[in-house]
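Minutes, project check-in

Agenda point 3 was the complex the collaborators sent over. CS summarized: three entities, 840 residues total, and the question is how they sit relative to each other. Sequences were read into the notes so everyone works from the same version.
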Amino acid sequence: MALTDDAAATANVGTGPDDATGMSSDVSAQPALPATRPGDAVVSPIVVPNTLWQAADPEAYDGGRPTDITHLREFDASGLGRRDDARWGGALDVIPTKADYVLDLIRMNSLWPLLSGLACCAIEMMSTATSKNDMDRWGMFPFRASPRQADVLIVAGTLTTKMAGPLVRLWEQMPEPKWCVAMGDCTCSGGRYKRSYSTVEGIDRVMPVDVYVPGCPPRPEGLIYGMMKLQQLVKDRRGHWPERAIGPTVPQEV
Amino acid sequence: MDRRFKVRLEARFGEQLTGPIRQRHDETEMRIGPGDVVAILTALHDEPELGFEFLSDLAGVDTGKVMQVVYHLWSETTTDWLRVVADGLSRDDPRAPSVTFLWKGAEWMEREAYDMFGITFEGNRDLRRIYMPPDYQSFPLRKDFYLADDAARSPGGGVRPMERSHVPSNAPSKALVRQIPT
Amino acid sequence: MTTTSAPSDDPRIELDRDLGVFEPVPPYPPRTEREAEFYTLGDGQMFINVGPQHPSTHGVLRVVLKIDGEKVVDLDPVLGYLHRGVEKLCENADYHQAICYTDPLEYVSSLFTEWSPVIAFEKLMDVQVPRRAEYIRVLSSELNRIASHALFLGWMALDLGGLTPILWSFIERDEIVDMLAALTGQRMLFNYFRIGGVNGDLNHEFMSRLGDWMSRAAEQIEAGNGLLNENEIFVRRMRGLGTIDAKTALRMVMTGPNLRASGVPFDVRRAHPYSVFPELEFDIPTRSEGDCLARYLLRMDEIKQSLRIIDQCLHQMPDGPVMAKLPRLMRPRPGRAYAAIEGPRGQLSTYAISDGTDQPFRMRIHDPSFIHLQSVGLMMPGHLIADTMAVMASLDPIMGGVDK
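CS then shared the predicted structure for the full assembly.
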């Protein structure tokens, strides 16, 4: 009891490794559950070897070396992102139940996009969100301004090297589960600015992408199709975000 | 094409011009040296019978040999655009005086010319990079800055098979078709 | 507790240390006078970084505000987050490809951004554009101007917090843009103007949609205006905010509606006419207050003038070809050309230099939004943070044009 003056009773409170109050509140006696099931590895991405053309200058387009313009690699290697402190995440991955399915339904039907309109595709994204092509029908009405409240990052518009830092920071600030939609040609592959000195040729160089919506700009119907594909992905839990890597991660069946 | 305007300009600025005044369509072009920019633009701005109060554009140009700063001005007194070309800036250390004392709105245009070409405008209070990140080293619009895949100057001159396969039959000479060392 | 542990030692607490803290102040000593002046804090002041991603939907603009309490003392816009290197790319492309690169500069009004280089290239090549093509150009671009101003209305209200007008604006815009899609094939980056004319003639789908829309246009626009013009919150927030007088506006090289709202009746269509504007009858609306409300009301007046121009175009449309006969491979003689047009935001101009090859030697694009953003710093001191958004929205910048 805290009211007693007994020095011995309160001597060890708050000090040392034995102290029970020092342990985190969700640590239990059992060992931590693994974050994923053993057979749940992501299928290896489809790799199309580049036989079509080669740049004259071997240093062009990075010279083929892996991109190092973000520290996401170090972040992934350090394992900080794999820590599965969240109760629900750990439990759900091991025990697929109807609760799983319901949660996926909930997530897919209320994907909240982050306002990340960079350029022209943002206008078509806004057009998709407004009355004529209404994205609110699928629950995507609130375009959150804060990344902490958003589920989907629809990157709409050209990503430049100056903006790549802030965009990756936005992506990292979004709490999981999160998905990324590359809208428009510039985000899929660099688009008409592929030869430019200051654009990133495709956002999959800096962040994992789930759905690519091509077009310059894609029609609102195209973006809606992309979002419905994303919903399908969410429902089938194929966008399995803990194992996500940078680069195309589209499984073979898609 | 306002011929009387050309006569007026030659009468007023005759000795400061470094070349003849040329006119084409609805533009009149005069070339001056960078040292005369302040005097001439102030005269163009302040004198009532010239009255060029509206700066329409401020551009940097890299001709490969020299750099230029080109001003486009508009006035009610003539139907032509006036183009003032400050010619002869060296490509190694291009310097030009700033016109921000006349038009404060030229500040960012000069910043852009600095960012893209490296032209230092003396008198601009805010000469830092505007488009590229502040630690960028090169000046992108210079002619010695090549894009990563600076291939197709013309049909047949590219590195991609699509660019090489099509050389039109009336392509004049091999000079336009770049020989890529294989 | 007998020991105090610093927060960074506790393994349960993750700091943003690995990601780095995003400081608005640049991590190097100030290199210019203005940087030194701006990035030194007075007593009680602080910096707030309105970052490249923010809900004010102009695109990726970063503004560093120096505030004293809620009042803004100074601001420094940081550009370049959308710099795509268009001018350099145009130097390595044909004349036709160069026009395609200019579409996404002012992406809501891309017919204007195409028009100015097209005129410059036509001057370089001494090409005469057929009259029907000119009339079609004016018609489609005035439609685009209305769409752009409708979007301005929506964004203006959205930045002040009103969510309804943008829905109405997008209805308006969707109708116009579907019309233009019937004409040009694309909803947004139209790629319609060609050197020597336009890509295709008017078709039945376009004319029927246009006729249908014109019969309803005036009431729709009045309804949209009615939402905001008499809304007390809107008017009280915007009146007297961000005032610029005529002399300052000329010194800041402003053009377009921002200049005309300050009392200077300068419109390139009348000051230096191009295309068939000498044959068309329209007024240049001008207002003298120079505040945000004047800029908003002026753009609404301009929509009415655009409707008038469209009407005249439809009545005066001549017959004939829509494209001049030109060689496929364009190689103008060496020379220089400058062309300026009146876009919905101001004067858009192109300075093109040709060196005799089939690629432009230099294509300099001058964009009005770039110039107008300089004046935000003049208008803001003394106003509140929330007014920054209103002022920027009233200048109607499009970051594609600002950053090129």
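Noted in discussion: Confidence is low (pLDDT under 50) at residues 1-43, 84-96, 247-254 of chain A.
Follow-up: revisit at the next meeting once the mutant set is ready.
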